[in-house]
């Protein structure tokens, strides 16, 4: 078995068996609720070679509240790798286009498959630094990913202040390979052919490639007829409206009947919208957010479950990573100032519960799918004040005004449509350009904007009760006067503090002898 060295600044991903966590039952207060967010049994299934877990299955419904809901059959993704076959020249052209988008997008790498045989996978990687194409070989997908790391890992984007990583030394994410339509690739000989385009995500989760502003991708999603309850499929076009943050406008995501159901459900349960407060926060809730809201019980009815699975089917993210749907209501003059959906561990040093919830930076909200449940003719847009235009620069340099709805990108609320955007970059770091807000509805006194949020996280909780040291306050490497009892890396002490000596003994006991006490 190959020996794996821990990644710089953190420990390698450990084995994790099936874990069972509780759902977020109800919003006690936002800060407490988010700290308590958990997910039903997340059955990992990545290939067991090299201490990895087996490949993830398609999302499944679990623990639905009603027999009718739990009996619902979840369809797999409609588009698969076989639907996007291409020639090698076509792949190389798409690879170059994805690699050189006019926005820093660290952690994403496009590969072209040169050949696949029972004993070898050969891919072509485009290296950003020198714009060269390199050939990489391996017996399996995991071998190829391991070989790619020293070639593709770089300080790409490290000097961009809008890209934020945690100051804590949390275990790094496992790199994963996906098709451009979200199929998780684990067995090259079965899933890949020469000329295929494959996408590497350093953060381990699929994110729809944006290609370019104005690009349209048609995605088939499962729907249920409101009158006959017959299941079928509908094409939802998603149009790229921004590359940083990566954001899409979805047309016809909800039906009129579903919008009516959401409004009826929420109208009886609304309460004032709270905020999660950071260590240094001094903004009053009424200065930031003046809407009302409620949550839909996770899997609480057939309609709710259908909506949840449609969201996860479209994003290609496992059902177990979703939160309860939040429904919001904005009346005339109500708004939500510019804010972030992620929770930066760097803002919660004095809040252990929140640090534990985001696992010191390893775990966070990856995607937000915001549904427009009603139309607003004047105002009510979702705005992104720090979005980049097609040339890769801000529309207007942001002036720090959290209520300036029209400085950057604004998506108009149209009933049944939705906006999908990502708070994390492909490498798992936080994207400050995902700053967004809700503009005030304007017009008649009775104008109302209804919307709903489906937040989806990048991973389940894996490190229960563990703490991780700060990288900006590194532990001193252990030393010993005994010859040969020393550490080969200055990171050994931090790795040992997180339990790597027992989880990764092949490397640690040979290279971190002093920190592991193995002398």
TrEMBL record:
It is a single-pass membrane protein. It comes from Diacronema lutheri. The keyword Membrane applies. Residues 46-72, 461-490 are annotated as: Disordered. It comes from the Eukaryota. It is found in: Endomembrane system; Membrane. The lineage of its organism: Eukaryota, Haptista, Haptophyta, Pavlovophyceae, Pavlovales. InterPro entries: Oxoglu/Fe-dep_dioxygenase_dom (IPR005123), P4HA-like (IPR045054), Pro_4_hyd_alph (IPR006620), Pro_4_hyd_alph_FE2OG_OXY (IPR044862), ShKT_dom (IPR003582). One of its GO terms (molecular function) is iron ion binding. PROSITE patterns: FE2OG_OXY, SHKT. Residues 485-519 form the ShKT domain. Residues 56-71 have a biased composition (Low complexity). PANTHER family: PROLYL 4-HYDROXYLASE ALPHA SUBUNIT, TRANSMEMBRANE PROLYL 4-HYDROXYLASE. Its cofactor is L-ascorbate. Residues 321-460 form the Fe2OG dioxygenase domain. Pfam families: 2OG-FeII_Oxy_3, ShK. GO terms for cellular component: endoplasmic reticulum; membrane. This is Procollagen-proline 4-dioxygenase. Keywords: Dioxygenase, Iron, Membrane, Metal-binding, Oxidoreductase, Transmembrane, Transmembrane helix.
């Amino acid at each position: 078995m190959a020996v794996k060295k821990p990644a710089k600044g953190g420990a390698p991903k450990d084995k994790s068996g099936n874990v069972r966590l509780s759902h977020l039952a109800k919003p006690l207060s936002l800060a407490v609720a988010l700290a308590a967010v958990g997910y039903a049994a997340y059955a990992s299934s990545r290939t067991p070679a090299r201490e990895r877990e087996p490949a993830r299955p398609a999302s499944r419904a679990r623990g639905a509240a009603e027999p009718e809901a739990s009996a619902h059959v979840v369809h797999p993704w409609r588009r698969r790798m076989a639907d996007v076959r291409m020639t090698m020249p076509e792949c190389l052209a798409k690879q170059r286009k994805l690699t050189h988008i006019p926005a820093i997008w660290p952690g994403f790498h496009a590969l072209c498959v040169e050949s696949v045989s029972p004993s070898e996978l050969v891919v072509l990687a485009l290296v950003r630094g020198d714009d060269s194409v390199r050939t990489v070989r391996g017996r399996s997908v995991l071998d190829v990913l391991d070989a790619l790391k020293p070639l593709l890992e770089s300080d790409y984007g490290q000097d961009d202040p809008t890209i934020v990583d945690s100051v804590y030394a949390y275990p790094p994410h496992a790199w994963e390979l996906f098709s451009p339509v979200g199929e998780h690739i684990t067995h090259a000989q079965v899933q890949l052919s020469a000329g295929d385009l494959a996408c590497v995500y350093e953060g381990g989760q699929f994110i729809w490639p944006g290609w370019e502003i104005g690009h349209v991708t048609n995605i088939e999603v499962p729907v249920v007829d409101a009158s006959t309850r017959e299941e079928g499929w509908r094409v939802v076009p998603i149009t790229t409206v921004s590359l940083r943050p990566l954001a899409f406008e979805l047309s016809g995501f909800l039906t009129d009947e579903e919008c009516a159901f959401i409004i009826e459900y929420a109208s009886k349960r609304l309460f004032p919208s709270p905020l999660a407060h950071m260590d240094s926060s001094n903004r009053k809730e009424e200065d930031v957010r003046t809407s009302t809201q409620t949550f839909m019980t996770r899997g609480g009815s057939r309609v709710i479950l259908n909506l949840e699975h449609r969201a996860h089917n479209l994003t290609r993210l496992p059902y177990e990573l979703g939160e309860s749907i939040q429904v919001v209501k904005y009346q005339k003059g109500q708004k939500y100032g510019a804010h972030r959906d992620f929770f930066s561990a760097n803002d919660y040093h004095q809040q252990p519960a929140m640090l534990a919830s985001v696992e010191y930076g390893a775990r966070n909200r990856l995607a937000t799918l915001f549904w427009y449940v009603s139309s607003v003719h004047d105002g009510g847009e979702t705005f992104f004040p720090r979005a980049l235009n097609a040339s890769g620069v801000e529309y207007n340099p942001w002036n720090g005004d959290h209520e300036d709805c029209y400085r950057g990108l604004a998506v108009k609320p149209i009933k049944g449509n939705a906006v999908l955007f990502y708070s994390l970059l492909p490498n798992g770091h936080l994207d400050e350009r995902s700053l967004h807000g809700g503009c005030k509805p304007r017009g008649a006194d009775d104008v109302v904007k209804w919307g709903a949020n489906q937040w989806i996280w990048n991973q389940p909780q894996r490190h229960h009760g563990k703490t991780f040291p700060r990288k900006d306050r590194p532990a001193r490497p252990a030393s010993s006067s005994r010859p040969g009892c020393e550490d080969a890396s200055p990171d050994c002490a931090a790795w040992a503090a997180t339990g790597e000596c027992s989880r990764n003994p092949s490397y640690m006991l040979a290279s971190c002898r002093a920190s592991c006490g193995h002398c």
